[in-house]
Design a protein that fits this description.
Subcellular location: Membrane
Largest sheet: none
Helix content: over 70%
Radius of gyration: 47 Å
Number of helices: 1
GO molecular function: SNAP receptor activity; SNARE binding
Distance between the termini: 159 Å
Protein name: t-SNARE coiled-coil homology domain-containing protein
Organism: Anopheles sinensis
Keywords: Coiled coil, Membrane, Protein transport, Transmembrane, Transmembrane helix, Transport
Shape: rod-shaped
Structural class: mainly alpha
Strand content: under 5%
Order of helices and strands: H
Length: about 110
């Protein structure tokens, strides 16, 4: 056991420890770089989602406006349909009255 070189043994341990430390340090640097890239990607995604949210909100407002316009148009069409029906009824009454008057005049002429 006297031939065993303790300084060489300690030197080997220190070198191994240093290699482990360098590998760990490199691994931490890679992890840090990945974290930075991930954060950058996350910020880009959040920014894009915000733009899409604004676009969706504008679209929703336009659809609500279009829905209101369609409701107004439907009310106008119902009123027009009702007026057309009233006009037809009045026209039919006028025609019936003209036929009755014409029939009365013809009856008076032959009597």
């Amino acid at each position: 056991m006297a031939d065993y070189d303790w300084t060489d043994h300690h030197r080997q341990q220190v070198l191994q420890g240093r290699q482990i430390l360098e590998r760990t340090s490199a691994s931490l640097a890679r992890s840090n770089q990945i974290a930075i890239e991930t954060e950058h990607t996350g910020l880009e995604v959040i920014s894009e989602l915000e733009v899409q949210r604004e676009t969706l909100l504008r679209s929703q407002r336009r659809l609500e406006s279009a829905n209101e316009d369609l409701s107004k148009s439907g009310a106008i069409l119902r009123a027009m349909k009702r007026n057309v029906l009233y006009n037809k009824l009045i026209l039919i009454l006028i025609i019936v009255m003209e036929v009755v008057i014409l029939g009365g005049i013809i009856a008076l002429k032959f009597m």
